[in-house]
Specification:
Layout lengths: L6 H24 L5 H23 L10 H5 L3 H28 L3 H15 L9 H12 L5
Length: 148
């Protein structure tokens, strides 16, 4: 155990970390409706992985290959670089497609969401306070990029 390099073990655990973190972040990227359960499910799973990795690292006699790997893994800069590179490489296409789709080919609910966001920013009054013609004129101004 002592005197060996931990290169292979660090590489293996770096791959395992990417195999856990990247899909969980992909799930988070695809999530439309967030609630407490999805937040706990995604980020709790990530936290559970790191806790289990720390526990495995402490079990020197049971799993000798994993002895002190937690301390070695988080002290190496290539581990962080590799995980960051894997996340960016794996999620960039998905993020780009979602951005292009929402910007140039939005769904109806996304258009409505943008409209509601703009009306709250501009401070458009509710329908009770305005007649329908005045409200339609303000909608046209907002769509053309003018404020009030």
């Amino acid at each position: 155990m002592f005197g060996r390099t931990a290169d292979l073990a660090i590489f293996r655990n770096s791959i395992q970390t990417c195999a856990v973190v990247v899909p969980l972040l992909k799930f988070a990227l695809e999530m439309v409706t967030w609630n407490v359960f999805t937040f706990i499910g995604i980020y709790g799973s990530m936290a559970a992985y790191f806790v289990i990795l720390a526990i495995e690292s402490a079990l020197i006699t049971t799993i000798p290959d994993m002895a002190f790997i937690y301390q070695l893994l988080f002290r190496t800069i290539p581990f962080y670089f590799f995980v960051f590179l894997a996340i960016v490489t794996a999620l960039s296409p998905d993020f780009s497609v979602k951005y292009i789709h929402r910007t140039f080919f939005p769904d109806n609910w996304q258009i409505l969401q943008e409209y509601e966001h703009r009306t709250t920013l501009v401070g458009l009054p509710e329908t009770d306070e305005l007649d329908m013609e005045e409200r339609a004129a303000q909608k046209v101004k907002i769509q053309n990029g003018h404020s009030k």
